[in-house]
Write a structure and sequence with these properties.
homodimer; alpha/beta; 6-stranded mixed beta sheet; disordered C terminus
Chain lengths: 683, 683
């Protein structure tokens, strides 16, 4: 800065409000750097990348105490004119590296010009993702070789990155060294590098080099590796934008539907763990191909992937036999985050792509729970917050900024539509919403891919293409809760007969009854039924979930929670009302029950786009107090007691008419209801 | 240490002489640690590894001012007794971790108990290698998992290494994590780890784990990757001992005998560099198999390899197209040392073995020259020292502690026996020493694998198995030098006819003559001849070598050097006398010409066994001033001028009788001799 700051122009950057006196003739980019303003640049101020665009504001800004006129910046120069001609510069924009400051001025930095721009998340309560990816692009001009000053091309590139970008401890991957010489010569000693900042103690690694200024982008994958489904989001590592999301079934299902059966498979079959590892890695490669094709992105430009998974999936992904996770003391091979190469686990992305696997919390509370904690941040909450991530295993977090507890509960795959007679994964044609008229006991429903209810005109037409193929996880919760509300199911979970319920939709099925939700058999379509087995499967699953939450509440010494966040693969679609009717979650003001969607996947995305978040979650997991459901006797007690489906009460005043109907109890021996529960505990 | 040091026993460790008062009851191992004495231990003082053995000396040591009696140490204990019974403890030895100090004592630390023991090198002037390998073994006791304190097995292992060995920033390789859990349980939570200390900024990586105390050793390879031959030494990374040395021809010879023809091959053939890379990596895998078999070592226990190579071989090994090395400004892709994984270059050793490649000095002066500098240390010399590493390319270093210059000279493969009519690599049956009687012109010789000269009784019998198969590099130098001394070759390098020389061994061959060194054709064996072409090839090679040395001398402004060190694949066998007769090296007192053997290979071995030496050579290369022969006009001048074979003079008084014979000149037009040289320079 100049020696006479009082007479230098005053520059104010918005929206940060950062201000200071800057010597006349300084470029806007340099001024931003001097004032610590977050203004992007990949080309380092050479008028190539246009990332440093700003919008000057002119006028009399009384609140800011400044008057800004068009003469405050130097005139439009040749570089800007050429750029505008070639690619177009938005009205009112200037290139920060070209425009020089002449007088007092207010400069707006649009979001896309901020290095640490925010990634927009739709939920109001969600934490924002600040862009700070581990892998970034840098454009540099490299000194040419000189026989009298011998040095390798790599060393001159490293020096350029240090001098032009301030990067310390930069090294090239071996493959980078192999490709470097032609790139430097083709780019006439100007190249764009992708540098990975997550390697070891403060080291940075050059992963890729492009001749000249690289116009394209680089990509990263956030993957939630679940027991039943694998979900991936492909993100642009520069903008943070999600370009494609895709999922597939975990092919390990053929080795066992739940985690413990996979651990057993490994115990019983020598090499079984390697089989499962190979299966999941193959599926991941399919997913990578699929998601890259959907976004029309070269898989070779995917430079990073972040994984979250439960401990068993975590171990199987990494090629670790999960056998120790099947028996106390449930020792993880490693609980720490892992930074490895994609090729070490056989993933086909950029040949030197890096993988970051989030840390685990404990033997039964994995990197997926850590990711949920990162995404939903109970540790930053003033309210007491219960977060349940519903999947084949439920990860449960309870706490606030004072203390966070975590456990995992073996809900089984029923919530994901597996082990349900008409269950299927969430895909077009699957029933996802259900209502049952409490008087007529007639259902209406909606299927994925269609906005209409089944009793609305045009529904048959609109669903002709997809058909009505089954019930997805959120649908099964709704239908069973609605059956309970309509008096078709008693508190013990037993489906009544047609005589007991007064509807011919309750049909005999073996020694029990089933509810006929949809019958297309006349036209060769399926009969979609909710069987007694389905209700039992959901009862087991929801009891496990509820018991886990109760166990944490006991540990914290509380009877109620302030907020409930429902997360999980189908968390976005789950209905808080129905979850409460079913007794999946403890009682709570229904206004305070929200859906967080795939919070584990979001946690993965946060870790992908913000490398500081990796350090944050690594520290957070050490501070989460973990409760082991498998050895807590109270978990079993809560589990048994939670088997019943209590009558829905206060939260649903409009349902009162239904609820005053005498609650039928088809079979007292099923031990359902509060009375049954108490009796059992005393037995 | 105790509060009353004056009354504590005085302990003196020999040979270091380190002394101090130590509280009575302290173990010898702890005393050594307190006094900073270099006493080894792998098991950390648990009486398992026996690496901490010491020999107490008893008596009245007046010079040391101490009297030591057998009561100075605690009595032989159970651990020592058991160890002695099981494996035997040498007479007079104690286990340092068991024996406790009771009174004043002198303790000898035998070489094998020193961590930083010296590796014995035969040459008196050679620098000693101090053991300080990058990969070491550590025995640890790991805490068992505890459900209430969740942590991964890896984290508890890392903590044990930190607490029990003071290691910071320890991380496990992915494969280590995969193998860790069974090893910990099999070893009942006691394991031995191999930890690599060369990864990145102060990071240590656990590469391997064995249940319990691992009785075996770990190994490293030092490899000199030459254009013509590949030589490897397999070393024990604990003792430093060379267990096996082996070599093979570089299969890249089929793509071109010298470096420039290989660069040309790459230029002319798309994918040619990849072909050559693949060929050399295959050969290296053969070498690894061969050398491991010879030493009866599992190749999977070879945890490290260090490579030295000239720049073209360096690039081809690493998979970098060497095309830039074929044209000014001879830019290296990288001049820095490389730390990579063996699997990145397809080498079959331990699956996570690490590779260290020494840095290059410049485009024509490679990691092999850096290794020679490390081994011969001209930078530490008071004398002005000329080091020539003779191979297909000669690396030449000139300097002393003030300044070191380096260049590389394209000698071609003649010195290695290639391009020589009867040439072969140094192997049993190859002629390696030659004398020609100056009067009778009759030769006598020795072959590799036999101690007898060819005119001694029993020679025919002794060589029956190997035969006499050809002439190796050192043999060709001797025979041509002897031919010159015997007057069979004129100063211009022309072989005389039988009439001119007076011996029927000079036979016509085409338009020139050849010298018949050995004729076994009567019994179906070979005729071993030295042809005019052979003399020409050696003349070209030695001129290049001499010109390089002269060029450095010019640059330093000197006419003579104090010492000459001959190194190279056949450097151990080269005869200084004959090298000087041929004019390979500048004149120097013959007493000051020594052979260093394969100095590049030794440099590789130093870097393998001493990780500080890696930092040393990385720094050294930046301080060596490099001279580029390819663009120095004076190199061409020296080269042309050095073509003649000057008459040998002063250094060989006993040869005077030969030398006073009139020096024949068969063909003045060949322009040989001093006169010819002068004329050329003026032309």
């Amino acid at each position: 800065m100049s020696d006479s700051p009082a007479r230098d122009p005053m520059v104010i950057f918005m929206p940060s409000g950062k201000r200071g006196r800057i010597a006349s003739g300084t470029t806007v980019l340099d001024a931003a750097r001097q004032l610590g303003v977050d203004l992007d640049s990949v080309c380092g101020g050479r008028g190539i990348c246009s990332k440093c665009q700003v919008s000057p504001s002119f006028g009399d800004f009384q609140k800011l105490g400044i008057r800004s006129t068009p003469e405050a910046l130097s005139e439009w120069n040749k570089v800007e004119a050429r750029y505008d001609e070639k690619r177009g510069l938005k009205e009112g924009r200037r290139l920060g590296c070209q425009a020089q400051i002449r007088a007092d001025v207010v400069l707006d930095v649009p979001p896309e010009s901020q290095v640490h721009r925010q990634v927009v998340r739709k939920r109001a309560e969600a934490r924002q993702i600040i862009m700070d990816p581990a892998t970034r692009l840098y454009y540099v001009e490299v000194a040419e070789p000189d026989m009298h000053e011998p040095s390798g091309d790599l060393e001159r590139l490293e020096r350029a990155l240090t001098q032009q970008w301030g990067l310390a401890h930069v090294k090239g991957d071996l493959r980078l060294v192999q490709m470097l010489q032609p790139a430097l010569r083709q780019g006439n000693w100007k190249v764009t590098c992708a540098v990975y900042h997550g390697a070891g103690l403060g080291e940075a690694r050059i992963m890729q080099v492009w001749p000249g200024y690289y116009e394209g982008s680089i990509y990263g994958l956030a993957i939630d590796l679940g027991s039943t489904t694998i979900a991936g989001h492909l993100c642009d590592l520069q903008s943070g934008e999600v370009l494609a999301s895709s999922g597939l079934m975990n092919p390990q299902i053929r080795f066992g539907e739940d985690l413990m059966s996979r651990v057993s498979y490994s115990m019983m079959n020598p090499g079984g763990d390697a089989e499962m590892t190979s299966a999941v890695r193959q599926a991941l490669n399919t997913l990578i191909q699929q998601i890259a094709a959907e976004a029309r992105v070269d898989p070779g430009l995917i430079l990073e992937a972040v994984f979250v998974a439960n401990p068993v999936m975590h171990h199987l992904l990494l090629g670790i036999d999960p056998v120790e996770l099947g028996q106390a003391p449930f020792a993880l091979a490693t609980a720490s985050s892992m930074s490895i190469w994609a090729k070490e686990i056989g993933l086909e992305m950029h040949p030197d792509a890096r993988i970051y696997v989030l840390p685990c919390i404990a033997g039964h509370v994995g990197a997926d729970a850590a990711a949920v904690a990162l995404s939903e941040a109970p540790n930053q909450s003033d309210d007491l917050m219960l977060v349940v991530d519903v999947g084949t295993n439920a990860e449960i977090l309870l706490g606030d900024r004072n203390k966070v507890l975590a456990c995992s509960s073996p809900t089984g795959p029923a919530f994901e539509g597996a082990q349900i007679s008409s269950g299927q994964r969430a895909a077009p044609g699957a029933i996802e919403r259900v209502e049952i008229d409490p008087v007529t006991k007639e259902p209406r429903f909606r299927v994925i891919g269609c906005e209409l209810w089944s009793d609305e005109p045009g529904f048959a037409e609109a669903t002709r293409a997809t058909g009505i193929t089954g019930i997805c996880g959120s649908g099964i919760i709704e239908v069973i809760a609605e059956m309970r509300l309509a008096g078709l199911v008693d508190p013990g979970g037993l489906i009544g007969s047609a005589e007991q319920t007064g509807t011919p939709r309750c049909v005999p099925e073996g020694r029990t009854h089933a509810y006929l939700l949809h019958d297309a058999s006349a036209t060769g379509g399926p009969k979609i039924m909710v069987t007694q087995g389905d209700v039992r499967a959901i009862q087991l699953a929801k009891s496990a979930l509820y018991a886990g939450a109760r166990l944490l509440m006991d540990q914290l010494g509380v009877d109620t929670v302030d907020r409930v966040v429902l997360a999980g693969a189908f968390g976005a679609h789950i209905s808080p009302k129905h979850a409460m009717v079913l007794g999946m979650i403890p009682d709570c003001d229904i206004e305070k029950v929200t859906s967080a969607g795939n919070a584990a996947g979001t946690g993965a995305r946060i870790a992908l786009l913000n490398s500081a978040a990796r350090r944050e979650v690594e520290s957070l997991v050490t501070r989460i107090h973990k409760v082991e459901t498998a050895i807590e006797p109270r978990f079993q007690e809560h589990f048994v007691a939670a088997n019943a489906i209590p009558h829905a009460t206060d939260p649903y005043p409009k349902m009162t008419s239904t609820l005053v109907l005498p609650v039928v109890s088809f079979n007292a021996a099923s031990g359902g209801g509060e009375g049954g529960r108490r009796r059992r505990r005393r037995a």
